[in-house]
Amino acid sequence: MIFCFKERQKSSSAVARWPARRRGRGCQPALRRRGRRWGRCVAAVSPLCRDMGDDLAWEGDSLLQSEKEFHDAAKRNDTARMEELIRRGVDIKAKNNAERTALHWAAGAGSVDAVRLLLEHDVPVDDEDSFGMNALLLSAWFGHLRVLQILVNAGAKIKHVNRNGRNLLHCAAQRGHIQVMEFIMEDLEDMCVDERDKMDRTAFHLAAEYGQLEVVEFLIRLGCSHSAKDKEENTALHLAAKNGHLSVLEKIIDVGVDFDEKNSEGLTALHLAAEGGHSHCVKLLVEVGADVNAQTQKKMNCLHYAALHGYEEIARILMDAGIHTDALNHQNASAMHIAVLQNFPAMVKLLISAECDLDIPDNRQQTSLHIAAEHGRQDIAEMILIAGVNLKLTDKQGKTSLDVAARGNHIILVDMIIKADRFYKWKKDNLNSDSGSWVAKHLTFKQDHRLETQHIRSVMWRLATKYLKPGEWKKLAHNWKFTDDHIRAIEQQWTGTKSYREHGHRMLLIWLHGVITAGENPIKGLYEGLVGIGRRDLAESIRKKANADSTSPRKCTAM
């Protein structure tokens, strides 16, 4: 977070080009309104910036030129220019659109001489800007100890808080200004180390949240509360884990706290570290014994959060620690459901390797494959299909994953699922243990673009587009034991009155996949199929052409 002192000003040349009626004092209300709009726009960007005055650069045009120059001189610690402007009658109490005076700027910049000069001229020491920050809080925020001491001696209110309820200690702790904190706690009276802001956060919370290790150690030595909770019931441990501050996390753990303390949403420090992608913090919490299977109010475990963001390293750490990979959240979704929905193939692969249950239905009765089919996730569907799933499972609408893919017009996915269904049946009846590992290693359900199958694929294309009559592809499909569901899914595609050609071509390629996987002769199988539907003429023609072509493979190699 950077405190910027650069003012936004119109160039003199730009102002000179304005009509005279706009350059005069009469245009000031409009300019001030514009300045307020700028202030509101920028202030909306970051609540934290609003709290601590990081929008000081956007002061708009509410000041006279001499007043702007006075503020600038205060920032620069240019007391000579300030005195000159004072002699000319400048309003030393003038405020910009953010209600800031020259004292705010001088205190924020650490301009000691300028602060002294302003105090000598009796400027109000406790004026607040629109964020509730007075000069004393700004000096603490930016770590200007000497300015802070001067303001305290001038009678500034040491108990002052900004509009978020943060005091001197909060400001110094968040920014890591240890010398300022030492002065506050040792030299100022009645300063409570566990004072809370409007979010019920103490200085210890803020130091942990922003990774201020030295401040954390200082506050621990002072005897601060280690387990204090803010309004969201976060402890300092939660905030350190959430923001990935490993050294702070280690220090808090060393003092002895409950690793599994939950906030108002049921999140532990481990949940927050996992959600934030902080693998080093996750590893530390696991090593010290945090509960990896703890669930939030929405029944999310840490693996759900890792899957949600695709954090593979964190998922590995959690799996090694024994996390339940099939735990279900309030929507009955597992980590696998979430990884598929968020489209993280590497996470899906990792979960499959951990042997998670791929057939678990969520609250819509959808399996992981249903979700992949609905969103057209081909790479993920490929991994799931190769791992092996129950393709008969239906969602709440009674749709299988094949139905869902067809409904979404995900043509390649439809064909992949049909290939997988036919492969599962063939594997059950034919595959022995010796050949199983070889087939599994080379198995794919994606489109075949290999050079060695190019010839037979071209035969399939010509057959489907030039020789098969409408309806004949379905007869072939039935002959080759395609189910009615397979045929309906293929027919879902519509490309016009000649759609049957594309349907036939897709069916032939699906059939070819099974033949090649089984290590069978595709020309022989095609011949027998055509004869089976009464197209012996076409079968003989294809066989003669194949025999005449010496380069045509008599038997394609398996995948």
Automatic annotation (TrEMBL):
InterPro entries: Ankyrin-DD_containing_protein, Ankyrin_rpt, Ankyrin_rpt-contain_sf, DEATH-like_dom_sf, Death_dom. Pfam families: Ank, Ank_2, Death. It comes from the Eukaryota. Gene3D superfamilies: Ankyrin repeat-containing domain, Death Domain, Fas. SMART domains: ANK. GO terms for biological process: signal transduction. ANK repeats lie at residues 65-97, 98-130, 131-163, 164-196, 199-231, 232-264, 265-297, 298-330, 331-363, 364-396. The keyword Membrane does not apply. Keywords: ANK repeat. Residues 472-546 form the Death domain. PROSITE patterns: ANK_REP_REGION (PS50297), ANK_REPEAT (PS50088), DEATH_DOMAIN (PS50017). This is Ankyrin repeat and death domain containing 1A. It comes from Taeniopygia guttata.
